[in-house]
């Protein structure tokens, strides 16, 4: 394969109808000229360069410890940011590496971890560093503390980190200061020191330069593996990069970007997006962005009633955002103009009150009686949605179909989760784009078969909207990959 003289650029901007048709006919063909013309937008996202199947091995080598066997195929992109996988053993041996991870895990009243997903997701990058003789200085936040707050200490994470890494992780009582410096100085090669909650300092979220400099002074280089906070310009996610070189992406951060940008910018088609949740207002940007890219858009959750009312239907006492009726109308018109198949549920499960034990029944979406509220999509809708998804090659899902916290109204959400699991097993790329959708696939027990499950709620949404992620933009540029 000949090396390109210049890198192509990956864009999230809309493709023309002709390009869509071409992509559907030959998904591995790229309109390079078209992609180059949209380079500025892609660069703002921190990407340049696209790659297809011949480069799978290149990217897979970087994230081999992250990928799981048996998952569906994935779109592949080459990051324009340097990765920890680009650093050699000589770059890492004996070096102090400041690793910003996202260890913001839920704890019960006894300070026990109730979901260690984010801890497990951070392990591949840490293991790679310690296996290459680096001295790892691990940083994270937990919760939203106001100053030093004992219940938000990272101390409960030490046993689980130690177990997963197979070494004894040390814990500092602070994240800066003389005592921390002494602990760093005595850290052996292949050792890990967990700093205390970085948000115990208000300077963290203010991205205070002096605070960032103090954090950076502990290390020789920087790795950001905290996708969940990459949309925030904080001292430990953006500020430290001004003082530490190289500053590179960890395996998890890279994998998130590969999927959420790569698979959507150049998806195997037909490409479907499923958007749910309670309010249109929280998903406006995502819906508008996906309308530029997808072939099929399925809407569920509480937001559908705003669309129903905008179409002149009675919604009973269902949730409606009155100030978003015009927006709903315009989104429907936009979908039609762009040739996107936008599907609203044809029937809904309604209840006489918002409660797990409410009386319920299934009615057409056009026949919701007064005093009743919609809390889930109905069986006809599940079938229609499943049939539509059965035609796809790439699916991204963000937001539940109903109030899935109540078992009686979780049927629609669980059916979609099971359908995506079925599709993933048959080779469809399935991406769970953060938030409650992750909880849904975990609840149903099908998380392991999805192609990718995002660890970042807010960051996932902002990336899908095409927004800049400060934590990504701050990282070093990579050497372009030949395509």
From TrEMBL:
SUPFAM superfamilies with a match to the protein in the record: Phosphoglycerate kinase
GO function terms (MF aspect): ADP binding; ATP binding; phosphoglycerate kinase activity
Entry keyword Transmembrane helix: no
Enzyme Commission numbers on file: 2.7.2.3
Superkingdom of the source species: Eukaryota
Keywords noted in UniProt: ATP-binding, Kinase, Magnesium, Nucleotide-binding, Transferase
Reactions performed catalytically: (2R)-3-phosphoglycerate + ATP = (2R)-3-phospho-glyceroyl phosphate + ADP
Database matches in CDD domains: Phosphoglycerate_kinase
Biological process annotations from GO: gluconeogenesis; glycolytic process
Pfam family of the protein (one): PGK
Pathway: Carbohydrate biosynthesis; Calvin cycle
Gene Ontology, cellular component aspect: cytosol
Cofactor or coenzyme needed: Mg(2+)
Family, similarity comment: Belongs to the phosphoglycerate kinase family.
Subunit structure: Monomer.
HAMAP family attached to this UniProt entry: Phosphoglyc_kinase
Protein name as it appears in the record: Phosphoglycerate kinase
Species, as recorded: Aristolochia fimbriata (White veined hardy Dutchman's pipe vine)
Lineage: Eukaryota, Viridiplantae, Streptophyta, Embryophyta, Tracheophyta
């Amino acid at each position: 394969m000949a090396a390109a003289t210049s890198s192509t650029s990956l864009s999230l901007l809309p493709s023309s109808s002709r390009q869509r048709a071409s992509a559907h006919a030959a998904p591995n063909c790229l309109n390079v000229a078209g992609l180059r013309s949209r380079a500025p937008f892609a660069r703002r996202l921190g990407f340049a360069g696209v790659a297809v199947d011949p480069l799978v091995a290149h990217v897979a080598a970087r994230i081999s410890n992250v990928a799981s066997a048996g998952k569906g195929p994935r779109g592949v992109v080459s990051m324009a940011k340097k990765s920890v996988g680009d650093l050699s053993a000589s770059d890492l041996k004996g070096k102090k590496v400041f690793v910003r991870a996202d260890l913001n895990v839920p704890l019960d009243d006894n300070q026990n971890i109730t979901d260690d997903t984010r801890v497990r997701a951070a392990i591949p990058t840490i293991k790679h560093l310690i296996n290459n003789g680096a001295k790892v200085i691990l940083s994270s936040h937990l919760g939203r503390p106001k100053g030093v707050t004992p219940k938000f200490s990272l101390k409960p994470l030490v046993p689980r980190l130690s177990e997963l890494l197979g070494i004894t992780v040390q814990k500092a009582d602070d994240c800066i200061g003389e005592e921390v410096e002494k602990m760093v100085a005595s850290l052996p090669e292949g050792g890990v020191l967990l700093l205390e909650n970085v948000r115990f300092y208000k300077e963290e979220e203010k991205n205070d330069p002096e605070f960032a400099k103090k954090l950076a002074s502990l290390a020789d280089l920087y790795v950001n593996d905290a996708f969940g906070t990459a949309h925030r310009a904080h001292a430990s996610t953006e500020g430290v990069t001004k003082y530490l070189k190289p500053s590179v992406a960890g395996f998890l951060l890279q994998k998130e970007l590969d999927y959420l940008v790569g698979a959507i910018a150049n998806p195997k088609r037909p490409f479907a997006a499923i958007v749910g949740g309670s309010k249109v207002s929280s998903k406006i940007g995502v819906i508008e962005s996906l309308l530029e890219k997808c072939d099929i858009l399925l809407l569920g959750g509480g937001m559908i009633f705003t669309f129903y009312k905008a179409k002149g239907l009675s919604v009973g006492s269902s949730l409606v955002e009155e100030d978003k009726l015009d927006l709903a109308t315009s989104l429907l018109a936009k979908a039609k103009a762009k040739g996107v198949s936008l599907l609203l549920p044809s029937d809904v499960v309604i209840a006489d009150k918002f409660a797990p034990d409410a009386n319920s029944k299934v009615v057409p979406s056009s026949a919701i009686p007064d005093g009743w509220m919609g809390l889930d999509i109905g069986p006809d809708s599940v079938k229609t949605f499943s049939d539509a998804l059965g035609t796809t090659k790439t699916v991204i899902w963000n937001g539940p179909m109903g109030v899935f916290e109540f078992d009686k109204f979780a049927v629609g959400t669980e059916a979609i989760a099971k359908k995506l699991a079925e599709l993933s097993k048959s080779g469809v790329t399935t991406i769970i784009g953060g938030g409650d959708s992750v909880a849904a696939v975990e609840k149903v027990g099908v998380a392991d078969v999805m192609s990718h499950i995002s660890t970042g709620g807010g960051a996932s949404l902002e990336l899908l909207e095409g927004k800049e992620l400060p934590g990504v933009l701050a990282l070093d540029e990579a050497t372009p990959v030949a395509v």
